[in-house]
Design a protein that fits this description.
Blueprint lengths: L1 E6 L4 E4 L2 E4 L14 E8 L2 E10 L1 H15 L5 E12 L1 H16 L3 E5 L4 H10 L7 E2 L2 H9 L4
Parallel strand pairs: 5-6, 6-7, 7-8
Antiparallel strand pairs: 1-4, 2-3, 4-5
Helix pairs in contact: 1-2
Length: 151
């Protein structure tokens, strides 16, 4: 079930009863870019979060609060799908890592899905994020790792 979608296009959306105003990106360096976070609960203890667009300073500013709320508030398994990300800056990495650490403290776990997104894959490889958060190219492998963690 899709509970929340956030896209930066200049209108208002409602999230858990809170009205969130979306900024019009036409005046920014990201003109025409849509930044989004969507989620789907695959089971009671497994959530998929899809991120998309440019995760630079402006993009992360748009999605950080809803992403953190979706990723790190309950002790569940979270798959973060980065296949729709067109650019991943250090501020985007910080957001993901902080949420993974907060989730870990609550007893949950996170995995990243990059698929065939070579831009995101090279960024993650350059900083060694797989040492912190398991990273996968295949969605089924990522979901299996979250459903059946090694002891």
């Amino acid at each position: 079930m899709l509970l929340y979608t956030f896209a930066s296009r200049g209108s208002a959306v409602e999230w858990k009863g809170i009205k969130i105003l979306e900024k019009n990106m036409s005046e920014s360096a990201n003109a025409g870019t849509t930044v989004f976070v969507k989620h789907e609960d695959l089971s009671e203890d497994l959530r998929r979060i899809r991120l998309g667009g440019r995760l630079d300073m402006i993009g992360v500013g748009e999605i950080e609060l809803p992403f953190t709320a979706l990723a790190a508030t309950r002790p569940i398994a979270v798959l973060v799908d980065l296949t729709g990300v067109s650019f991943l800056a250090s501020v985007g990495l910080r957001c993901i890592i902080q949420s993974a650490k907060a989730l870990d403290l609550k007893g949950g776990r996170m995995a990243l899905l990059v698929g065939d997104n070579s831009l995101v894959r090279s960024t993650l490889d350059a900083v060694g994020i797989s040492e912190i958060i398991p990273t996968f190219f295949d969605e089924n492998a990522a979901l299996d790792s979250l459903r059946h963690p090694q002891a």
